[in-house]
Amino acid sequence: MTSIVVEVAGGLTCNSTLSASRLGRHLFSPLEVAEYGARCLDGSPGGFYYNLCGTGSGQNKLIIWLQGGGYCMANSTKPDIEDCSRRVGTAQGSSNYWGASVSTPSAALWSRTQAGNPDFYNWNVVQILYCSGDLYAGRANTTRGGLYQAGHNILAGMLATLKKDGVLDRMTDIILGGGSAGGFGSHINIDYLRRFVSSSTRVSVVPVSGWFVAIDVYPGSQVTPIAEVGRIMYEASSSYVNQDCVAAIAPLPPYMCLLANTSYPYWGVPSFIAENLYDTNQIFGQDGTPLTPDRKLIPATCPYIHNFGGIIAQSFTSVANRSGLFVPSCLDHGVDYVNVRIVGPNGNVNFQQMV
User: Fold this and answer.
1) How far is CA 127 from CA 66, 159, 178, 268, 322, in A?
2) DSSP string spanning 159-192?
3) DSSP E strands, the chain
4) pTM exceeds cut of 0.85
5) Distance (Å, rounded) from C-alpha 277 to C-alpha 121?
6) Tens of pLDDT along 76-90?
7) Of 131, 194, 330, 349, which has the most beta carbons under 10 Å away?
């Protein structure tokens, strides 16, 4: 079926002409951009994709999914931190490159196909494409080197739009989730969502591959430690952080609340956390563990990697019993929604069923 743009006058509604597996685009108007400060890196309007045709048990339930894509810094002076200028001219930096609609995956938490997502396929779905490079934390209403980093503003604008059009008020359940940078964004913004919606709405969070911990980088590595990345980002983009966390950890600096293991006690909602024990983006990217030229493991690095896994495992000991955990002992980044299965007394369970 041919999809059409779903920017309908009079508010966001179910568009029956859109195929079930596709999401239609909503771009913020110039007035909304000015009101919310919701811009992509190049200043183009932020926005989101949505399908509000939930049915049956999912008619009044909503999944908000945040796209991943690493992070960057406007005018980066660090050789290991991507300069955001590289993203301008792509969908990661400008909504000018977004299509009229996007398809949902065949099997994922926000998939709208019953075969690939039997527990949530009939829920309403909103997806934010990642065009700010700031882990969805930025609130910069002014340019830095001609670029904006306002990912939190885009998320806040999305919620305000759904509220204005009466969508949020009819939702009984909302899941906020995302992968990688979107995993960061989901836990960074979950308290904002919790406070924004009615207290009667059941809110939960599913951060996937966003549980990064401040660990000493690989010895001799010249990479920027994750806590220092947080400081730079917090100062450069006026990052949104959980204020309950900030008050509780003082005199530690506020930017430490960008890290999930620091902010977790203050999320205030049930959560399902998915994180590989040996996350390759953390080990080889963020922490600078070297690889051979053909991207193979170097045996001498194994003690560091083994210790890394122990630290990550230890970081989960504070997770309360109101939360679910999926922490496979894998050297990988992300979750395979199709092939991951846990074999138990009741048969095989996939990721969506775990949630």
Assistant:
1) 6, 12, 9, 23, 26
2) HHHHHHTTTGGG-SEEEEEEETHHHHHHHHHHHH
3) 22-27, 47-51, 61-66, 101-103, 124-128, 173-179, 202-208, 271-274, 278-279, 323-326, 331-332, 342-344, 347-349
4) yes
5) 29
6) 889 999 999 999 999
7) 131
